Predict the structure.
Amino acid sequence: MSVNHLKQVKTREEHKKTKEDGRKAVEGATTQKASKVKNAQKARKAESTNKRIRIRLIPIWLRIVLLVIFTGVFAVAGATIGYSVLGNGNAGDVLKGSTWTHIIDLVEKK
């Protein structure tokens, strides 16, 4: 084989060697690309299998409504227990307006 100054080979052995090196480089690049693709596919599969779809039994708006209702019920229950059991009063008097005006007057010291 002839040689010129443009990085060409001198002998057949060098030509075969560079040809094999080129193939290995291409195969290495394709295997790297293939492995990246396989890793990406595995990651997608793992992501899709780990992703859980959540179905709420009680919607968020209903939770908020229930929170407001339970807060009111427990406030009334707490006032009733506090006034009747701890304060030795009648449980029915908690819901009367005159009781609350009397309590407010005691707090404001009128």
